[in-house]
Amino acid sequence: MSPFRAPLESIGNLDAETAAALIEGTADIAVVIDHKGIVSDIAFGSDDLLSDFNADWVGQPWLSTVLPESRPNLEALLDESNHRSVTRWRQVSHPSSRGADIPIQYRALRIREKGSVVAVGRNLQGMAALQQQLVDAQQALERDYWRFRQVETRYRLLFRMVSEAILIIDAPTQRVVEANPAAGQLLGETPTRVIGRPFPEGFDPESTQAINSLLAGVRAAGRADDVRARLIDSLQEFLVSASLLRQENVTFLLVRLSPLLADTAVAAMPEAKARYLRVLENAPDCVVITDSDGRILTANGTFLSLAEIATEQQARGESLDRWLGRPGVDLNVLMANLRQHSTVRLFATMLRGEYGSTTEVEISAAAVRNGERPYFGFFIRDVGRRLSTEQPPSPEQTRWLDQLTDRVGRVPLKELVRESTDTIERLCIEAALKLTGDNRASAAELLGLSRQSLYVKIDRYGIAADHASELHAPDKKIVHKPRPE
Fold first, then answer.
1. What does DSSP assign to residue 70?
2. Choice between 336 and 24, residue whose per-residue pLDDT is larger
3. Which site from 62, 100, 232, 467 is most exposed, i.e. has the minimal number of CB atoms within 10 Å?
4. What is the Cβ-side half-sphere exposure of residue 313, based on CA atoms within 13 angstroms?
5. Which residues form the PAS domain (predicted)?
6. What is the per-residue burial (b if ≥16 Cβ within 10 Å, else e) of 407-427?
7. Average pLDDT of span 202-226
8. At which of 347, 382, 417 does a domain end?
């Protein structure tokens, strides 16, 4: 507050009537209170405010004219007037004859020491109305926000549960903005990996051209006829439809991929291929097709049964290593051989089910080159119920056992154990090489040895002497060390 610099010179001595007229003209309500806190006079700035109060205040304690929760503010105002000539603004609420409370903001001025107090009030009904409108508007926004959240939740749930593949594509860049799980399964990827990639991708050249023409027509005219498309590594044919979607200033394309009926798709293929696919689907052996990383693209019902999986959808996108007997070893060995030789035959391992069951299996596999996206086919046979034919011991094993028995009592046990250990180690290396098709890198991984250690042991025991040139190649230099006693 900034006071007048020279009130006596600029205003002079005001008489009571002039001061009263000035207060009445500037205040919405003015109350004069004596030193006992009794209202001695009152003035209203408008007839509407006068009609809002239900009784005449003159002769009543001023504290009785306000609501109980406002009395502490009014008492503080009167107490402050005893120490300061002009008090601060304080807000109180008066009861109204119309039901709604009337908020008034007062400032008090003591006329003379221990004399009457003049309280000047501002009517805050207009401000309260604006505040109420603001609160109502905020609550309306909150309700709209939660309603839109519920609508968005239902949309996202429907988007995820729909069986058809749906993609939302940014029209200018033609990149995927959003994809549902069905689209990820159809494209052989998880939905998160599909997002951000260009569309179409992974289709055969004819399908790519047809889809690009479809999207161009939708961007230009808003609609276009559906087209047929097919992925490079899939025989499944489906219809591609698109529509334009505008959101604010951004244009999107809503693309739907609808698989054709199985009978129609089979009929479109040559009869020989159709029969071939039906045989693979109903084969008693497991048939699994994976990508170059070992992630499952498709699997037949026999594999689902052995792996204890309800639907093929649960297996798609998962690594085949999840169900093989030695995680991190078997699949790596198979993949290494497939990349090197394109085929693997009768690889013995275990297949683990989701609920803990294990099955002895033999795996044969083949790699199919498909440009930059090769894929692998695995044929897994259950050999758990096969009658085991125990192989007779080799002459070398029989001779070694006989020699070992004959030397008991003549040679210290420590020396017999050392010689037996060397023989067992050599037999294990030969078994690993036989199991991996003489692939030494895979055999080292299978035995838990480094490649260098395996080469040293092979050279020490004279295993596979026909690979001597490989052992002494410049990039695989072997350091021969005598076995410590």
1. G
2. 336
3. 100
4. 9
5. 151-222, 272-313
6. eeeeeeeeeeeeeeeeeeebe
7. 83
8. 382
CB-based contacts of 201, cutoff 8 Å, min separation 6? 187
CA distance 149 to 246: 20
Cis link prior to 200 (omega < 30° from 0)?
A: yes
Model confidence over 151-166: pLDDT tens digits? 888 877 877 777 778 8
pLDDT computed for residue 12 by the predictor: 66
Q: Which residue has the higher pLDDT, 473 or 296?
A: 296
Give the mean model confidence (pLDDT) for residues 123-134.
Answer: 83
SS3 105: strand
For the full predicted model, state whether its pTM sits above 0.70.
no
Residue 51 lies inside a defined structural domain of this protein: yes
Q: Are both 373 and 413 inside the same structural domain?
A: no
CATH of the domain at 285: 3.30.450.20
Residue type, 43: A
Q: Are residues 429 and 329 in the same domain?
A: no
Residue 274 sits in the same domain as residue 369: yes
Is residue 341 included in any domain, yes or no?
A: yes
| Boundaries of domain holding 462 | 395-476
Count of structural domains within the chain: 4
Q: Which of the two residues, 350 and 155, has the higher pLDDT score?
A: 350
DSSP-derived pairing of the beta strands 296-299 and 227-230 = unpaired
Domain stop point among 330, 361, 382 = 382
123 vs 407, higher pLDDT: 123
CA atoms within 13 A on the CB side of 354: 11
Kindly write down the DSSP assignment for every residue of 275-307, as one continuous string. HHHHHHHT-SSEEEEEETTSBEEEE-HHHHHHT
Q: Looking at the predicted structure, is the pLDDT value of residue 445 above 70?
A: yes
Same domain, 364 and 420: no
Residue 261's pLDDT is 60
- Determine the average pLDDT of the residues in 172-185: 83
pLDDT for 378: 92
**Residue 40: Cβ-neighbour burial (10 angstroms; 0-12, 13-18, 19+):** middle
